[in-house]
Inverse folding.
């Protein structure tokens, strides 16, 4: 038995060593590989799959086959020239911690199942509350991403608002419950509406408050919506418009919500990180007055997927909305953290290890410098692109978002021209960025969120984008 165990350990060591080599090869080749490329999906499936083997295969051969066969379908989203979907890369310490997280394989749902996971999430939670300047006692949950952070926040809001109306929604459900008025920005992110859908508020029942030309919620319009309401009120603002990067005036919105004794939620998927930067903290003025906040770790903290964060000022509402429990979960010591109390999951990955490693390796100053550097690079991208006659920058570049529109010099449809520039830039492979529709116009959407992006990456990428635009412009 000892011999067999020793043989198994040796085989596992060889497998992990080979996996390490493949991972290092991928990371070392990020600068050289196309960021994105056209892929034949059917061919990718055929090459990678086939019939389920009757007999098991050697694990090293399995990993080598997987790595080789899916390579063409890998997007270099962790590299320095990926500017799509506000996606950061992964700082080195977070990658290393995530590797260990898989090896440790902790079920991070409560203290009994992993005291280590409970302790690390408690530490990281305290650091994050301090970093963002949130009130002491704010509770923190480590979710899969901002979708579940929005979900958790609005579940806490639902609990608190209906509790004040004398209704226990966790026990009684929504049938017969007092109605709640939900007001959102007309430019709220789709995941917010997804959370409203899943929680029974209904996507179409939310009142969409008009925004200004940069996508900021108009406070005068919000006041008009809230005037004379006799229902509990939930207002959802955003820190960082997904297209322009603009911030709703959180301080003024918080005053409106306070006047009606409502709940203010802020979707800060990437914009909340401005609070960690001395240069950009003013953009989130009043964030400490929010009742709940959602953000992503895999955006600007640059930790591996999946990683989201939720903050709730009323920790009792947060816990009541999430907790159910079972007898076999056991009883945790006093003051110990049970992670499942703060997220809509029981069995779950110990994602707090990567967050802890990123925070500790960067420190307060390193996080601020990373955010400020990305914002400066976004301005550099906008400046370089705007020098071309066919380019219009649609947004005020206040953070890391650049919204670009292209117009053919000889006349023609700017929407079609912009869409074709985006398609060609994506196929070019020098960088990857996304398209969007903003205020009825096709636009290129560039998000600078990666810790490793340099000025050289911005210059190479902007040159590639302009080259694609120039190739469509007829010679005079």
């Amino acid at each position: 038995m000892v011999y067999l165990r020793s043989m198994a350990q040796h085989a596992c060591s060889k497998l992990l060593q080979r996996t390490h080599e493949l991972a290092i090869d991928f990371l070392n080749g990020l600068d050289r590989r196309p960021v994105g490329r056209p892929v034949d999906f059917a061919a990718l499936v055929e090459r990678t799959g086939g019939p389920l083997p009757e007999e098991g295969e050697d694990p090293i051969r399995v990993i080598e086959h997987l790595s080789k066969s899916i390579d063409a379908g890998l997007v270099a989203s962790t590299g320095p020239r990926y500017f799509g979907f506000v996606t950061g890369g992964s700082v080195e310490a977070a990658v290393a911690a995530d590797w260990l997280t898989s090896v440790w394989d902790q079920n991070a749902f409560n203290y009994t199942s992993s005291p280590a996971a409970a302790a690390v999430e408690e530490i990281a939670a305290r650091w994050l509350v301090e970093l963002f300047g949130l009130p002491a006692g704010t509770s923190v949950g480590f979710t899969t991403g901002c979708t579940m952070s929005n979900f958790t926040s609005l579940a806490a809001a639902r609990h608190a608002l209906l509790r004040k109306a004398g209704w226990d929604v966790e026990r009684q459900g929504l049938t017969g419950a007092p109605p709640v008025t939900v007001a959102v920005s007309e430019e709220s992110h789709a995941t917010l509406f997804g959370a409203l859908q899943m929680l029974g508020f209904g996507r179409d029942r939310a009142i969409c408050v008009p925004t200004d030309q940069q996508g900021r919620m108009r406070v005068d319009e919000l006041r008009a919506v809230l005037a004379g309401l006799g229902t509990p009120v939930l207002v959802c603002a955003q820190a960082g418009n997904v297209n322009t990067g603009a911030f709703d005036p959180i301080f003024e919105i918080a005053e409106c919500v306070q006047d009606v004794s409502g709940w203010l939620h802020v979707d800060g998927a990437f914009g909340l990180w401005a609070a960690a930067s001395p240069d950009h903290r003013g953009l989130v003025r009043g964030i400490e007055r929010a009742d709940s906040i959602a953000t992503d770790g895999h955006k600007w903290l640059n930790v591996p997927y999946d990683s989201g964060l939720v903050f709730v000022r009323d920790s009792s509402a947060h816990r009541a909305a999430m907790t159910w429990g079972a007898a076999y979960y056991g009883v945790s010591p006093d003051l110990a953290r049970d992670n499942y109390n703060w997220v809509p999951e029981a069995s779950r990955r110990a994602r707090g290890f990567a967050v802890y490693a990123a925070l500790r390796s960067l420190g307060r100053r390193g996080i601020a410098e990373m955010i400020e550097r990305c914002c400066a690079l976004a301005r550099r991208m906008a400046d370089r692109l705007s020098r071309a006659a066919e380019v219009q920058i649609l947004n005020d570049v206040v953070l890391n978002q650049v919204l670009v529109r292209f117009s053919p010099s000889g006349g023609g449809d700017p929407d079609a021209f912009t869409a074709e520039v985006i398609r060609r830039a994506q196929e070019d492979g020098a960088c990857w960025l996304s398209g969007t529709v903003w205020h009825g116009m096709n636009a290129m959407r560039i998000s600078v969120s990666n810790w490793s992006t340099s000025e050289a990456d911005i210059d190479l990428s902007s040159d590639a984008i302009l080259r694609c635009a120039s190739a469509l412009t007829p010679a005079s």
